[in-house]
Amino acid sequence: MPDKSTRSESAKAAATETPQAPSAARKIYPIVKYGDPILEKPGAPIKKFDAELEQLVEDMFASMYAAQGVGLAAPQIGLSLRIAVVDVTAGKNPEARIVLANPEIIHAEGEVREEEGCLSIPGFRGYVLRPQFVTIKAQNAKGEAFEIRGENLLARAFCHEIDHLNGILFLEHLGMLKRDLIKRKIKKLRKQGEW
Ligand SMILES: [Zn+2]
After folding, report:
1. Cα dihedral angle (52, 22, 78, 174), rounded to 10 degrees?
2. Ligand 1 centroid, distance to 103 Cα (angstroms)
């Protein structure tokens, strides 16, 4: 990720950010881009729920907000693990922060075709058919099991992040022509050293 921080942006961030715990010097991870094989392999289940994991989760939220995303999965920061964070309010509502460790879709209903993007595939978007409602079960950063139902954007975010944990990118849901076009453009960007 290019460093886009400017003085005015950080001033704005300071004014709108909710105060964090004093110890919260968060690590901002660079986002892994399409082409890195880690994005296309399934992550390992989370087995240890300890302080280190809680720290990782906080760093993932910070990295996601820094990249202006609404979801971030561990493979996107180079860790092949089944954990993701989601916040469809992009940091505006602390209660909207959702940690998904070892998530699974247990129910899906309806269909919505909407445009979707991915922090790992910057600059490209495509229409993806997703369920309108999904119910998932997962564990939080402490290992506590929970179920949550999401609708529309939240349902889409859940599906997109769970896909990441399975090594699947939104490109795989696009029609072949659109997918190949994006892949070709990325290949060209990579050749030019711009990816
Ligand atoms: Zn993504």
Report:
1. 120
2. 15
Contacts of 93 (CB under 8 A, 6+ apart): 87
pTM of the model: 0.87
pLDDT in tens, 94-137: 999 999 999 999 999 999 999 999 999 999 999 999 999 999 99
81 CA to centre of ligand 1 in angstroms: 15
**Residue 101 C-alpha to ligand 1 middle, in angstroms?**
16
Q: What tokens appear for 114 in the block?
A: 């909407």
Which residues are annotated as catalytic? Answer: 161
Burial 118-136 (b: 16+ CB within 10 A, else e): bbbbbebebebebbeebbb
